[in-house]
Amino acid sequence: MGQRRSGSRWQSVLLAAVAVLLATAACAAAQLSQNYYASTCPNVETLVRGAVTQKLKETFNAAPGTLRLFFHDCFVRGCDASVLIAGQDDEHSAGADTTLSPDALDLITRAKAAVDADAQCANKVSCADILALAARDVVSQAGGPYYQVELGRLDGKVGTRAVVKHSLPGAGFNLDQLNKLFAANGLTQTDMIALSGGHTIGVTHCDKFVRRLYQFKGAPPQNSPAMNLAFLRQMRQTCPLSYSPTTVAMLDAVTPNKFDNGYFQTLQQLKGLLASDQVLFADRRSRSTVNYFAANQTAFFDAFVAAITKLGRVGVKTTGSDGEIRRVCTKVN
């Protein structure tokens, strides 16, 4: 009986702690606003958009790279630009972060320089907010929706590789694993599917899906969704058994440079590269949403805007004791 009471007390303490964390997160998110820099840096959106436009003229790779950078930043330590911190033990030296786009990192560096070059804005805009604005701008300039971005985040003071592996979805995740991870960040299944639609632009490396293409001797069986046979043969040509670690394939081979609902249509055709993508159509619990987005691009865009707005509130820091405005995005002050 004593053990049961003790366990009950611990459960109550745990629930109370979770409630406090959620309340704290909600309070921080409530301090974000679309006009946060109205008096301190009224031109911030124009300055960031200019840097994005120039970079995308040089290489489209920066578009999917920046969107992925924002997602990885928010899921690992909250949206605090910790993913940008460079060092021996930094976040982008671990797990999925090792393939973060150099072009995306360069885009944020340029955007930060453009903002700080304005005398009124110098050292007043966080790298976390610049990343959130840049993510919106690459989506919009790739043909996706334009939406208002909530601002007011501070930059984190810590960025280490220790928590990266367990914070991000894996290429082989099933629906339950995806839902659990996204729910831990306050996001629903619909949010998860909409954000997965960001894969409508960008590439993935062979090692993330090669086990869907071949039967490896001695390898444990994998619960991988079915793949279109003609597409399977095509991908074997792209990624032979002797593939190069740098070889990539388009996540949406039909319109890889356009932010549209083509990603969901590829899933319907069993042409999703990642198991974690194709499972959204394979699992009956999520298939109807995939079908809806595949048939209605406006619905997808609306859901994406709602989801990425919620994503931008994850773990934000809005008080001086929690964060700072970095003078250089790649290192703490």
Brief digest:
This protein is an all-alpha fold. It has helices at 2-30, 44-58, 62-77, 102-116, 127-141, 175-183, 189-196, 229-238, 262-268, 275-282, 284-295, 297-311; strands at residues 203-205, 248-250. It has two domains: 44-163, Orthogonal Bundle (Peroxidase, domain 1); 175-311, Orthogonal Bundle (Peroxidase, domain 2).
Folded structure, characterized:
It is a single chain. The chain is mainly α and 333 residues long. It has two domains: 44-163, Peroxidase, domain 1 (Orthogonal Bundle); 175-311, Orthogonal Bundle (Peroxidase, domain 2). Helix content is 48%, strand content 2%. Strands 1-2 form a two-stranded antiparallel sheet. It is globular and about 60 Å long. Ca(2+) 2 binds at residues 200, 252, 255, 260.
Give the arrangement of secondary structure elements.
Layout: H1 2-30, H2 44-58, H3 62-77, H4 102-116, H5 127-141, H6 175-183, H7 189-196, E1 203-205, H8 229-238, E2 248-250, H9 262-268, H10 275-282, H11 284-295, H12 297-311
Antiparallel strand pairs: 1-2
Helix pairs in contact: 2-4, 2-5, 3-4, 3-5, 4-5, 7-11, 7-12, 9-11, 10-11, 11-12
From the 3D coordinates, which CATH architecture of the largest domain would you assign? Orthogonal Bundle
Structural class, by secondary structure, is mainly alpha
CATH superfamily of the largest domain: Peroxidase, domain 2
- Quick check: average pLDDT? 88
**CATH-derived topology of the largest domain:** Peroxidase, domain 2
Largest beta-sheet characterization: 2 strands, antiparallel
Our count of helices gives: 12
Helix residue percentage: 40-55%
- Total separate domains: 2
Distance between the termini: 53 Å
The number of distinct β-strands equals: 2
Could you spell the SSE succession in H and E letters?
HHHHHHHEHEHHHH
Assembly annotation: single chain
Percent in strands: under 5%
Overall geometry comes to globular
Strand order of the largest sheet: 1-2
CATH class of the largest domain: Mainly Alpha
What does the radius of gyration come to?
21 Å
In terms of per-residue confidence, which ranges show pLDDT below 50 for 5 or more consecutive residues? 1-8, 10-25
Signal peptide: 1-30
Binding site for Ca(2+) 2: 200, 252, 255, 260
Enzyme class: oxidoreductase
Function: Removal of H(2)O(2), oxidation of toxic reductants, biosynthesis and degradation of lignin, suberization, auxin catabolism, response to environmental stresses such as wounding, pathogen attack and oxidative stress.
